[in-house]
Specification:
This protein is mostly helical. Helices cover 55% and strands 5% of the residues. The chain folds into four domains: 7-95, no CATH class; 102-168; 172-296, no CATH class; 320-434, no CATH class.
C-alpha cells in the first residue's frame, strides 16, 4: 500500500462508517484501534497487513481520531496474540472472504501455469493476477512472500512442460545436431567434420552480418544452409506466443556453450531449437535485403564506370588526321578558306583565319603532329608544307621555318611538326595547297 495520502483521500478511504463503528463496540484501547485499522486496510487491499509498517502513518492518526484512541497505541497492538486472530476471522466474515488454503494455492499455481505463463513473462504481473483472482473468488490472498513462491512454482511447471513438448517434436537426428552446436572442441579445427558446426558456428550463429559486401552475403547464405540442416519441424512453435518464443531465443543467446552442456537435455534442446528457429527467419529476411543492397551497389558502380568511359569518349577525338585531311582536300578542290581545330591533350585548340595561297589555294594550320598516312595523302594532293616551331608558352611571334615539298609533286610536301631547335616548344605545320 502507498504511504503518502492526501487529506481528501484519507477522508474518502479511511473514514469509518456507521456499520464499521458498530463492530467496535466491545473493543477498547490498542485492540479497538488495531481492529479499525485492519478493517479499513482489508477493505482497500483485500488482505491483512503483514506488520504495523504496512499501514500509512497518516491513516493511523486519522483513524485514531475517529475511535478516540491515541495513535501511539498502534505500536502496542499484539500481532501474534489470540486477539488479532479473532479480529481477522471477524473481518473475513464481515466481507464474506475465506482463507486461502494450500489446496487453493496449488490450484492458483496450476491456473497460472496453464493460462497466464504462456502469454505473460512479468512475474510482477503474474503476482497481481493471483491477488485479483483471489478477490474475485472472495478468498484472502496469500502473503506477498507466499504469492512470490507460488508464481515461481507456476513458472517452473510451465517451463518443464514447454521443454517436454518442444523436445517431443525433435527427431533423434536433430537432437544430435543440436548437441554438436555446443560440444566441446578437442583438437583440430573447430567444428571440423560436424554437420552442427561446433561452438565456432554457435558463436557465428548469434552474430549479425558484418557489413554490406559479397563476403558477408556468402557468409549469411552458409549460415542459413547450416541452420536448415538441423531439420527443425516448421510447426515446432506454431502454438506458442511470439513473445514467449522471443524470450527463449534471447535467453539462449546469453548462454555460453559450457552452460548449455550442463543443463538438462530437454532444457538444452528447447533453448537451442528456439534460437535456431528464430535465427532462420532473422537470417532469411535480412539476406534478401542484403542481396538487394549489394545489387544496387553493383549497379551504381557500373553506372559510374559507364558514365566515366562515356565522358572519356566524348573528350577523345578519334581520327583527327582523317578529319583534317578531308578538310584539306575539300579546300583544295573548292578554293575556300578552311579553319581547322585540333585538340592537344583533350583540350580545345587554337582556331583562326588562314592566309590564302592563291586564287584556288588554301592554307590550314595544324597544331598537332600528323600521322604518316595523312602526310602521304597530303603530299599526293600537291600541298606545300611549312613547319612552324613554337616555343613553350605563347611563341607566336617567332618566325616560321619553311620546309619545301618534293619538286616532282608540283608543290610542297606536308611534314610532321617537330620541336624547335632549342627543344623548348611544340611544333605545328602550315600547309598551303594550290589547285591543279
Amino acid at each position: 500500500m502507498r504511504q503518502d495520502w492526501e487529506p481528501e483521500d484519507l477522508i474518502e478511504v479511511w473514514t469509518l462508517l456507521e456499520d464499521d463503528m458498530a463492530k467496535l463496540r466491545n473493543k477498547s484501547g490498542a485492540n479497538r484501534l488495531g481492529f479499525a485499522l485492519l478493517l479499513k486496510f482489508f477493505e482497500v487491499e483485500a488482505r491483512f497487513p503483514e506488520d504495523a509498517g504496512d499501514v500509512p502513518k497518516a491513516a493511523v492518526e486519522y483513524v485514531a481520531q475517529q475511535v478516540k484512541v491515541p495513535a501511539k497505541e498502534w505500536t502496542a497492538y499484539d500481532w501474534a496474540g489470540r486477539a488479532i486472530k479473532r479480529h481477522r476471522v471477524e473481518i473475513r466474515e464481515a466481507y464474506g472472504f475465506r482463507v486461502c488454503t494450500e489446496e487453493n494455492q496449488a490450484q492458483l499455481a496450476e491456473w497460472l501455469a496453464v493460462e497466464l505463463c504462456p502469454v505473460e513473462l512479468s512475474r510482477d504481473r503474474l503476482a497481481e493476477a493471483v491477488v485479483a483472482r483471489c478477490r474475485r473468488q472472495l478468498m484472502e490472498p496469500p502473503t506477498p512472500g507466499q504469492v512470490g513462491r507460488l508464481v515461481g512454482s507456476a513458472v517452473s511447471t510451465f517451463e518443464e512442460r514447454f521443454c517436454q513438448a518442444a523436445t517431443g517434436w525433435l527427431s533423434a537426428t536433430t537432437r544430435t545436431l543440436l548437441d554438436e552446436l555446443v560440444v566441446e572442441d578437442v583438437g583440430g579445427a573447430e567444428g571440423e567434420g560436424r554437420v552442427g558446426g561446433g561452438t565456432a558456428f554457435f558463436t557465428e550463429l548469434k552474430a549479425d552480418p558484418a557489413g554490406l559486401g559479397l563476403e558477408s552475403l556468402l557468409g549469411e547464405i552458409t549460415k542459413l544452409e547450416r541452420v536448415r540442416r538441423l531439420q527443425l519441424p516448421p510447426e515446432l512453435f506454431a502454438d506458442v506466443s511470439e513473445k514467449q518464443v522471443a524470450a527463449w531465443r534471447a535467453r539462449a543467446s546469453k548462454e555460453y556453450p559450457s552452460d548449455l552442456r550442463a543443463m538438462k537435455p530437454q532444457m538444452r534442446y528447447t533453448l537451442l531449437a528456439t534460437l535456431c528457429h528464430v535465427r532462420q527467419t532473422e537470417i532469411t529476411d535480412p539476406l534478401v535485403d542484403l542481396f538487394i543492397q549489394l545489387v544496387a551497389k553493383i549497379n551504381t558502380r557500373a553506372e559510374k564506370k559507364v558514365e566515366g568511359e562515356f565522358v572519356k569518349e566524348l573528350k577523345r577525338v578519334r581520327g583527327k588526321e582523317g578529319i583534317l585531311l578531308r578538310l584539306a582536300e575539300a579546300d583544295l578542290s573548292g578554293g575556300r578558306g578552311v579553319h581547322a581545330q585540333s585538340a592537344r591533350g583533350g583540350g580545345e585548340g587554337e582556331r583562326g583565319p588562314l592566309p590564302r595561297a592563291g586564287a584556288h589555294g588554301a592554307a590550314f594550320v595544324l597544331l598537332e603532329s600528323l600521322a604518316a598516312d595523312a602526310q602521304a595523302v597530303a603530299e599526293g594532293a600537291g600541298a606545300e608544307g611549312q613547319q612552324h616551331c613554337l616555343p613553350a608558352g605563347d611563341g607566336r611571334d617567332r618566325p616560321a621555318q619553311e620546309v619545301s615539298g618534293p619538286a616532282d609533286q608540283g608543290g610542297g610536301a606536308l611534314r610532321r611538326g617537330g620541336e624547335d631547335p632549342s627543344g623548348a616548344g611544340g611544333a605545328g605545320a602550315v600547309v598551303q595547297g594550290r589547285g591543279r
